[in-house]
Amino acid sequence: MTADRSIDRRTRQFRSGFAGAALVVLVCLVIAAALLHRGWDFYQLGLDARIDHPDFRVLSPGEIVGHGYGIVGTALILTNLLYILRRRVARLSLGSMRAWLNLHAATGLVGSVLIVFHSAFQLRTPIAMLTSGALAFVVFTGVIGRYLYALSPAFDPEPLHDNLKALDGLASGAGSNIRTWLEARPVTNLGGSASLPRALLTIPVWLHEARTRRRHILNHARVVDSRSSLTAEELLVLERSVRECAAMAAGEVRAMAGATLLRSWRTLHRVLALIMIASVSVHIAVAWIYGYRWLWSE
């Protein structure tokens, strides 16, 4: 029953995370569709043909609306960096980390959509190309990071321990033998400072450990079955408990692998975010120097 509750909890968490991610994507698609509909006649033209279009003085990167897209988009992207500060003070009651993560994803993606429309789908300067490239990499690594986060729930050892105790109740020593075997073969832990290449190279090791754990526990159960005098009903309960133990033991490996990959991926994401912030700062400074000051233009 404990294992069932644990599985149900993980299922609810996954569904909640999926619903939040789906809502963020839906909001981005709606905003993108609305902005594209607003300026479709302008955006589909070539650069030379745009000059004669009525929206040239509205939707171009340096004009009132196009420039506004860039300012609001940049503000949203800078706002989503608050998630990093929230992680630094995780113990404070400032809302759940899941809600902050969804806000982080929403502001980053919506901000990126606005930046794309700010550029009017044109990259005519090196600094614009650098900023757009940095932004694209940050968004890409952020999306992958959100996927890794969904696949790496924290491992709860209590259900596994409870199931092993239940095995001892069904067949003396069955759970204790498995526990001893698992304790002698801990999951490979790279620590909190492992690089992304090292984490990626360790994936085959984790896959092997997960398969080995599952296979050993299932094989051990077959040996217990052959030597026990349990009734048919008790054997069914034993087999179910063993399958759950095997899944949980393999799940511990997946949790460790997911957490390690997520930490190393976050490091890459943060480095790219710093590069993006630097390029955005240069982009803003250059635009300001050349007189593109939006509402503050003379």
Textual characterization of the structure:
The chain is mostly helical and 298 residues long. 79% of the residues lie in helices and 0% in strands. The protein has eleven helices and no strands. α7 runs antiparallel to α11. The chain is elongated. The termini are far apart.
Write the layout of secondary structure elements.
Layout lengths: L1 H42 L3 H4 L5 H4 L4 H16 L2 H7 L8 H22 L7 H26 L5 H14 L3 H11 L11 H32 L4 H58 L9
Helix pairs in contact: 1-6, 4-6, 5-6, 6-7, 7-11, 8-9, 8-11, 10-11
Describe what is shown at a glance.
This protein has two domains: 11-153 and 273-296, no CATH class; 157-262, no CATH class. The protein is mainly α and 298 residues long. The mean pLDDT is 84.
Radius of gyration: 27 Å
Low-confidence stretches: none
Mean pLDDT: 84
Distance between the termini: 71 Å
Largest sheet: none
* Helix share bin: over 70%
**β-strand number:** 0
Shape category: elongated
Strand content: under 5%
